[in-house]
Design goal:
Layout: H1 2-13, H2 25-34, H3 58-65, E1 70-76, H4 80-91, E2 96-99, E3 115-116, H5 120-130, H6 134-137, H7 139-166, E4 171-180, H8 198-211, E5 221-223, H9 225-231, E6 242-251, H10 253-266, E7 270-272, E8 275-282, E9 289-296, E10 305-314, H11 320-324, E11 335-346, E12 355-358, E13 367-372, E14 375-379, E15 383-384, H12 395-408, E16 422-431, E17 446-450, E18 457-461, H13 467-476, H14 500-508, H15 512-522, H16 526-531, H17 555-563, H18 569-576, H19 579-582, H20 584-602, H21 606-620, H22 643-650, H23 660-669, H24 676-686, H25 696-704, H26 709-717, H27 725-730
Parallel strand pairs: 1-2, 1-10, 2-7, 4-12, 10-18
Antiparallel strand pairs: 3-6, 4-6, 5-6, 8-9, 9-10, 11-14, 11-15, 11-16, 12-13, 13-14, 17-18
Helix pairs in contact: 1-2, 4-10, 4-13, 5-7, 14-15, 17-20, 18-20, 18-21, 20-21
């Protein structure tokens, strides 16, 4: 890890400071090779553990896959669409197998904006398209496009209603405000002159939006200038005329995906994570696919598992074309990925329990500021590119989001790079039917297509909101049996009420924040989690040892996660809990404790535990955090000339003093991270007043005096230069980006 950070430092700081050479090029090359270490999850050899009530254990699922039985349907892909397809097919009485090469929701399905939204932007863009000159030049095609988009929006409204009413343990309404400080906007949103009057039209548009779901959502409303100013202190620099407020649904996406997968298991599907398909099995002498050779990634087995089925469905999201290449290496592409980056900021950047929408960013995209699990989630970008497994968000995209935040929010509420607590990137699959006529457009709705030779069906495209509809449509291609998912509550839904968190507090002595978190995460199954909890040794709360004092996650959830098929530390850190998505530094701190609990539950050896800890740190390190990785970003050239510039560079938040965390970050990013004892000693050398704040004067005395390792290493790393203008323009936090 030190080596990885050091090479990032060299790449980043060579543009801002002159460095004393400290390693030959060959050594740096070795370090760069070390960065490539993370190649995905490593086998953890999990032993069989106690199953959840009514659901087979992962060990049982693997055993059944090896039995050689033939299935009616084999689904490859365990994201929202694949797991939903397995649930739909199993609930209709079909014999179903479903395999996922990673963890459930380990790719796109865990990296969304956390909204189950009904498509207000698509409504606007479809209207803009209908009212364009194309209505006169290509009337039939234009009306057809509008109808297709409008029909998709109607479907989104229906599916959103299903999720809010049937899966209330996993979803909630979130109000989203669109503040207006003018009645006329230019340049117009969506590139259409009509939308220059969007502030005037918004109240009517939002009421129409409500009507599309038969007014089953909380009603949109108008907030006057005085109330808007009180509600949004983040926008105090703008003389608000009013704010229009509408409602969308929100969820914890990875938890919803896991609930879908386990519900499929509950209905009899042979579904398992970390089972990778390697090679299709074809009829002897023919082209029809009748199965797949797979392997258990976690078991480290080299022996293939042959899984045979009458029908095979690919549900790989943006990776669907990779699956289709098992049919034919020269297969015609059908899916293009569009990446979207998100950042997580402290909760104070967003009004409590209310989101904000910037509908007119510099490049025309929507930018959401959403309250999510006590933080502010901001996103998203939109860039067409090939999908990647790691969630790393490009630094330039993080900076674009922060720049847009800076333009939108009050001038005195400085959006600082050091406020980024986590950042990640996901991919939306944009699909076309490869068997459709040439020139068919990519679709944000879903596409289902069958290869006439192999008989394999693939489904791609769509969005989180329509997972159930997509599953229904693809299973309809396999059977005439009636779909039943509209009547199914996902795992934890049966027995859940709005008072479940109160019952958890009363029965198990849980703190209120923990009880609310457990109820909204597991529904009625939260009682099972609480039964695994251990006493805190305190008067209150009596049960539920926390994983970290700043978050409501408890150690019992790690044990429960193992019974939900979690096999690696990153499964728990990223998807069973959302620590990596909320605060990457806290997630890093929790890795070893999570590993210790999983070792006991899954029977890991000390060697396996060490491997899992190392791999988890590499994985969590790929999330963004308060300190940027600008190895691939454009930087200003600058050199450090005097002590004040170095002080300002370390002062991440521009507060005028250095605190213990900032000193630790400086050491870490210069390639010599310190443990708690070393950091205490280094900080005490600077902080002569002992008040926890190092002033410029104290820093100057420390710099010009003698000190310990940090003092010596900083002096070795920096060489004073002459170019001051660039560094002054960069301002506070320059060293850390």
């Amino acid at each position: 890890l030190r080596a990885r950070k050091l090479v990032k430092l060299h790449t980043r700081l060579n543009n801002t400071i002159r460095m004393v050479p400290c390693a030959p090029f060959s050594a740096v090359a070795d370090v760069q090779e070390d960065e490539k270490k993370y190649k995905g999850p490593v086998p953890s050899f999990p032993q069989s553990c106690s199953p959840l009530k009514g659901i087979p254990s992962r060990f049982d699922q693997i055993t059944r896959l090896k039995s050689g039985e033939e299935y009616d349907v084999l689904v490859i892909g365990g994201g929202a669409t694949g797991a939903g397809t397995a649930l739909d097919a199993a609930s209709r009485g079909l014999k179903v197998a479903c395999i996922e090469r990673g963890d459930f929701a380990s790719e796109t399905s865990s990296r969304s904006t956390k909204l189950i939204w009904a498509g207000i932007r698509y409504l606007a863009t479809s209207a803009a398209g209908l009212l364009s000159k194309n209505l006169f030049t290509k009337p039939v095609e234009t009306v057809k496009d509008f109808y297709g988009e409008f029909k998709m929006v109607l479907g989104c409204h229906q599916e959103r209603r299903y999720m809010l009413e049937k899966q209330s343990h996993l979803t909630n309404w979130v109000p989203i405000a669109i503040p207006f400080d003018k009645y006329f906007v230019w340049p117009p949103p969506f590139g259409h002159p009509l939308f220059s009057l969007f502030p005037v039209l918004a109240p009517f548009v939002l009421k129409f939006y409500d009507s599309l779901s038969s007014f089953s959502c909380p009603p949109s409303y108008i907030m006057g200038p005085r109330k808007a100013a009180d509600q949004f202190p983040q926008l105090s620099h703008r003389a608000l005329k009013f704010a229009a407020v509408f409602y969308e649904a929100q969820h914890n996406d990875s938890r919803t995906n896991i609930a879908i997968a386990l519900s499929a298991a509950e209905h009899g599907a042979n579904i398992c994570n970390y089972v990778e398909g390697k090679e299709l099995i074809f009829e002897e002498g023919g082209k029809k696919a009748i199965g797949i050779k797979a392997r258990d990634v976690m078991g480290g087995d080299q022996e293939d598992i042959e899984i045979r089925a009458k029908k095979i469905i690919f549900a790989g999201g943006p990776y669907t074309d990779m699956m289709r290449k098992m049919e034919d290496e020269n297969v015609k592409p059908a899916v293009q990925g569009a990446s979207g980056s998100h950042v997580v900021l402290p909760g104070y950047y967003c009004p409590k329990d209310m989101g904000l929408l910037d509908y007119n960013t510099s490049d025309g995209r929507f930018l959401f500021f959403l309250p999510w699990q006590g933080h502010t989630l901001v996103g998203t970008t939109d860039k067409k590119c090939d999908a990647q497994t790691l969630p790393t968000a490009p630094e330039d995209e993080i900076q674009w989001i922060l720049n847009e935040c800076g333009k939108y929010l009050s001038n005195d509420l400085r959006v600082r790079r050091s406020d980024v607590q986590s950042a990640w990137r996901g991919w939306r699959p944009l699909a076309v039917d490869p068997h459709a006529p040439p020139g068919a457009p990519a679709s944000r709705d879903h596409v289902i297509s069958e290869n006439p030779d192999s008989g394999i069906i693939f489904i791609a495209g769509g969005k989180w909101t329509t997972w159930r509809e997509m599953a229904e449509d693809v299973v309809n291609r396999v059977t005439d049996k009636k779909c039943k998912t509209l009547d199914i509550k996902l795992l934890g839904g049966e027995g859940f009420t709005r008072n479940t968190h109160v019952k958890l507090t009363q029965k198990h002595g849980m703190g209120s924040a923990v009880a609310e978190h457990l109820a909204k995460t597991y529904g009625a199954r939260a009682f099972d989690v609480c039964e695994l909890s251990k006493p805190t040794g305190q008067l209150w709360p009596r049960f539920g040892i926390p994983l970290h004092p700043q978050f409501p996650y408890i150690e019992a959830e790690v044990v429960y996660a193992c019974r939900e098929y979690a096999c690696t530390i990153e499964d728990v850190i990223s998807r069973r809990t959302r620590l990596a998505y909320l605060n990457s530094e806290v997630a890093m701190d929790c890795i070893e404790r999570v590993g210790e609990i999983m070792q006991k539950e899954l029977g890991w050896s000390d060697e396996v535990l060490a491997q899992q800890v190392e791999n988890a740190k590499l994985y969590v390190g790929s999330y963004g955090g308060p300190v940027p990785d600008k190895s691939s970003a454009s930087l200003r050239s600058a050199t450090f000339r005097d002590i004040l510039d170095i002080f300002k560079a370390i002062d991440e938040d521009g507060s005028g003093f250095l605190d213990r965390v900032e000193v630790g970050h400086a050491g870490e990013r210069l390639g010599f991270p310190m443990n708690e004892k070393e950091l205490d000693a280094a900080f005490a050398e600077m902080d002569k007043s002992g008040d926890g704040r190092v002033t410029v004067e104290e820093f100057e005395k420390w710099w010009n005096g003698s000190g310990g390792d940090l003092h010596e290493k900083m002096h070795k790393e920096f060489v004073m230069g002459k170019d001051m203008e660039s560094i002054r323009e960069m301002g506070s936090g320059a060293l850390l980006g």
